[in-house]
Amino acid sequence: MERIDRLVRTWIASEQEQEIEDTVKEIEQGNANLLHVVKSLGEYLTSEEDDLRTKGVEFLSLVIARCPPEKLNRQSVRTLVAFYCGKLEDTETIIPALKGLITLTKLPLFTSIDAVEVAKALFAHVKMNVLVQSQRFMVFTIIDNLVANQREALKNMGDEFIRGYVGLAEGEKDPRNLLLAFAIDRVLLIEFETTKFIEDFFNITFCYFPITFRPPPNDPYRITTEDLKAALRSCLHATPAFGKLAVPVFLEKLTAGSPVTKKDTLDTLNVCLPVYGPAIAREFARKMWNTLKLEIFQPTDNVTEEKALKTMQVLIQTIYAAPAEQADDAEIEGLAKEACEECIQILREPEKSQAKHAIKVLCAFMSTTASVARFTLARAVPHFVKLFLDPDELPNRTPTLRLLADLIEAARESTSHDPEVLPEEGNVPLSPYKDEVIGVLTVGLKTPATAYPAIDALKSMVRTPGLLTDEELGFVVHNVNEVLQQDEDETDLSEVSLDLLCTVSAVAPSHVSGNTLPLLFSALPDRAPPRDADAERIKYWRTLASLKKLCTQPDLFETLVIRLSTKLDLLCVPSPSSTPTPTEDLEPAAAYAHSILKTLADVLSAKIELGHTDVVKYIDRLVPRLYNLFILSAIGAEERPMVATDPRLLAVAAQIVTLVTQTLTAPRQETFVKSVFAAYVDGDVSQLTEGIQKVPAGKRFSPLQPGASTYQKNLLVLFSAAVIALHKEVTLPVPDEVAFLDGLLQWIVTHAENALQREALMHLIAAVVNRHAEKLDAFLSSNIDGFWTSQIANQSASPEARRNAISTFTWLTKALLVRGHARATQNVDRLFELFDDEYVSWDAARAVGRIPGTDKVLTKKNHAVLRILYAQKYCNSVLPRIIEGAKASANSPRQNAYLVALAALIKSVPKSTYAHEMPSLMPLLLRGIDLPDNEIRAGVIDTLHAAAVSSEKDNAIIAEHASSLVSTMLKNSLVTQMPSVRVRVAALRYLAILPSVVRYDVLHPQKATVIRELAKVLDDPKRVVRSEAVEARTNWFKFTG
Amino acid sequence: MSLEQLAVVSAPQITFDPKYPDRVTVEFTPTVPHCGMSTFIGLSIRVRLLRSLPQRFKIDVRVKPGSHQSEQALNKQLNDKERVAAALENPALLEVLEQCLSTAGRTPHED
């Protein structure tokens, strides 16, 4: 007790936190209770001195605020409420009293009687206009607490409470208080009896609309305009009673407001109208339509126009939704009818710009209510049909169809809410008119100008679920086929027609496969057109392009595969009766076969992108036929020339095999690989091949035998294609993988005849090493070591052989690097050792650069084992070493090798990996330009170009070297001094960019020379060089100080 | 809108005689016979070609016969070396000209 006394006295003197905390602690520990506090405070609470009285009440409020609620009993709450209410009268104690009440009103012991008392006291004594913002905030918080906890008691107070509250809320301006006030308003409007006061509420809410508040910088409360808008909006649509008063306000804001106000008003109308109800909507329908019309037909901007259309929809929905789905469609009266008539009136002139706006209104009507949609279609569709068929309106057919297409699309959008539920037959709004519409559209297809909108409209119809019958779809396909056939000169029209057919094939593939595909297939010749028949070649290209676009759908793809593989067999396998003519030109046939294979490959990869699951089955249907064809051809080619031995065909076939293999599961891959190995290793082709033409029994397929023909050996491409996309779980069907891989490695060295064969096996070995590195330790250590010493490090071997061996080694290292295998680093170290070599130093250097480059073999799609950021890690370890090596000694071959490595590395890794090293790289790159290798030179210039493009203006390093750069680039751009087109183009590009990265005063001395020299380049024999020269020269002409 | 879209310049209006491979004639059609920009259009064409073609070419820039009210004067002015050179020495004129030609090439970084 005494302690409390002491604490109170100290606090009154010092006003420190500490005393309050101590007091609360005393109460918590049960050493004192609130009664003691009040007693101790006694003299202050009643003191004559204003200051002391304020402090006394303040102390009490602070203590209560911190006091645990369970220490307050019902009695003390009651007493405190009475006490604080009394203190509200006193202007000096009102503020601390409000603080105390905030705490009290939250307590569970605070009862309805208290609530009424507090409310009455607030209304009686609190004058909002003399309080500052934070104090008003307390008042609102108290009322908020009351409304939240003691709603029933307040309701029983009736009008007194409402009147009192309106009095308090009137004239509030602070955003923080308003947020609270709006929340209270909303509750009162929804739950309380406010009919008598609707005008008052209207006044204290609508006076804030529209919110123009802009938050001050560094606003501590972080109240945004949006918060306020949302809070106010929630009041505005709290009661339908506002309707009569509110709509005129909205309309006024809409006509007079700024664009922002307009948007806000429209958004608010959208939420308010449904609440205000059909009666209000109908009453103001005419006025609202007139105002909205202005926004739609003369829009200030797109957003406002869209919002106005949305409001229009809401208005129509509100008016017509009420009499629950009128049974009789004809009974559309009022606004919808008038607006619709008005729009149709405008649509009599479809070519005028107003028609576009009118159709937007009608389209908006489509997604309002079903009856309005039906009514609109009943008016608009016959109107368009009539207009289209009117001979006087012939020139306006295109805009007419465009408008009709828009309407049909809107009708489709309005119906397709749920794709799972098919509407009942005839329940689609457009159904009654579909015959005439299809009629008009098919007429539209006949001329190119009207064909575009007609195709769009047909597409929308096809996409409308339940609208067209199967027969009608057939009719559509038939008509579009005609468009496709007539379109000779490859316009966009065939593009959009194919698009439509694709849409049809998604719902009814049978029509497309039954009608369109035969048409296209019959357009494909059985024999390749001869070399000079350009027109025919273009024709089959086009047909194949159409097929490519159309046939991703599973059923169609099946037909495509059957037809094209048959065509391929026909093309590539000569009939046994025909006598072989050695001079026969196989090139056209090969080109045709290539296009066919490419089509299949492209569609397959498109299907894989789309995630189609039917790709898997082509391991049985397409792949064996391909193997059959190519193996047959390779064996046959030993006697007579065969089309399907062309390496380019092999490449595409390999692509197809890899694509299909990618999609297989590991077990299926396992069986497939078994059959592939049976053919390639054991010579048993029966499991792998399938086709009408059988591989002759007497011939043996043995591509890996030393004595095999080149044709057979070339087929290793298809061997590798099957293996590079294997999952890592798949084991190869060989007794010993190490021995197998070593055998292949030796095969590359001793038997491979060309780059094709070598590469195929390199890819194969790399793929296997990448998947199974952990099982192949022996191979990776001893066999690779042996390979290195005998084939690469061995100075006596021919440089050519060593070069090939280096590229094999590169692939091996790459396979290890991408999976983060430790041996990759060791292999790279070895390559560095070769930098001093007389013959292969550059090849080793290039290899170092190329190892981290991306390729098509070790990819994620091919299920390669990849570690993320391997290129970055590689770069981080190798780049510093290269930079150091390149700087170390001047003008030695070793240093050049480092420059080569640098150029190659920069080309193969993403720019971000070396961007931070750019300052130290620049001088090296500038030296790299002088290397006598065009490929490297072009690469270096490209890198410099990329660096210049991304660098900020006034790049110091470039400026420093500017004059030497200019003269080097000029030298490299002249055809007399630089035979490589690629380097000339790169140099010119760099010259073109220079004026934008270097200050004029630096380059001024060069300008005349550059313009004079570039004039010579303008006469370059290559067109692409000339055009780059024009670009560069123009930039220099424009370059002035 | 570009001049090409307005059909002021078009590919068929550019002719050259195989007998004289170094001569090019470029014709353009002003949109209206009293078009005040015709000299400027002609000058732009000339400057663009001057910069883009090797020096061995001789270029004639003309308005399409009958398409402009002062056709003679215009053709004379456009093919007068001295007057073209003088125009290019006028900094104000050159600036406008560069503006006209700013979209002639590729936009930077496009490729």
UniProtKB/TrEMBL annotation, chain A:
<dbReference type="InterPro" id="IPR011989">
    <property type="entry name" value="ARM-like"/>
</dbReference>
<keyword id="KW-0227">DNA damage</keyword>
<feature type="domain" description="MMS19 N-terminal">
    <location>
        <begin position="38"/>
        <end position="298"/>
    </location>
</feature>
<dbReference type="Pfam" id="PF14500">
    <property type="entry name" value="MMS19_N"/>
</dbReference>
<dbReference type="GO" id="GO:0006281">
    <property type="term" value="P:DNA repair"/>
</dbReference>
<feature type="domain" description="MMS19 C-terminal">
    <location>
        <begin position="543"/>
        <end position="995"/>
    </location>
</feature>
<dbReference type="GO" id="GO:0051604">
    <property type="term" value="P:protein maturation"/>
</dbReference>
<keyword id="KW-0539">Nucleus</keyword>
<dbReference type="GO" id="GO:0097361">
    <property type="term" value="C:cytosolic [4Fe-4S] assembly targeting complex"/>
</dbReference>
<comment type="function">
    <text>Key component of the cytosolic iron-sulfur protein assembly (CIA) complex, a multiprotein complex that mediates the incorporation of iron-sulfur cluster into apoproteins specifically involved in DNA metabolism and genomic integrity. In the CIA complex, MMS19 acts as an adapter between early-acting CIA components and a subset of cellular target iron-sulfur proteins.</text>
</comment>
<protein>
    <recommendedName>
        <fullName>MMS19 nucleotide excision repair protein</fullName>
    </recommendedName>
</protein>
<dbReference type="InterPro" id="IPR024687">
    <property type="entry name" value="MMS19_C"/>
</dbReference>
<dbReference type="InterPro" id="IPR039920">
    <property type="entry name" value="MMS19"/>
</dbReference>
<dbReference type="GO" id="GO:0016226">
    <property type="term" value="P:iron-sulfur cluster assembly"/>
</dbReference>
<keyword id="KW-0234">DNA repair</keyword>
<dbReference type="GO" id="GO:0005634">
    <property type="term" value="C:nucleus"/>
</dbReference>
<dbReference type="InterPro" id="IPR029240">
    <property type="entry name" value="MMS19_N"/>
</dbReference>
<dbReference type="Pfam" id="PF12460">
    <property type="entry name" value="MMS19_C"/>
</dbReference>
<dbReference type="InterPro" id="IPR016024">
    <property type="entry name" value="ARM-type_fold"/>
</dbReference>
<comment type="similarity">
    <text>Belongs to the MET18/MMS19 family.</text>
</comment>
<keyword id="KW-0677">Repeat</keyword>
TrEMBL record, chain B:
<dbReference type="GO" id="GO:0051604">
    <property type="term" value="P:protein maturation"/>
</dbReference>
<dbReference type="InterPro" id="IPR034904">
    <property type="entry name" value="FSCA_dom_sf"/>
</dbReference>
<comment type="similarity">
    <text>Belongs to the MIP18 family.</text>
</comment>
<protein>
    <recommendedName>
        <fullName>MIP18 family-like domain-containing protein</fullName>
    </recommendedName>
</protein>
<dbReference type="InterPro" id="IPR039796">
    <property type="entry name" value="MIP18"/>
</dbReference>
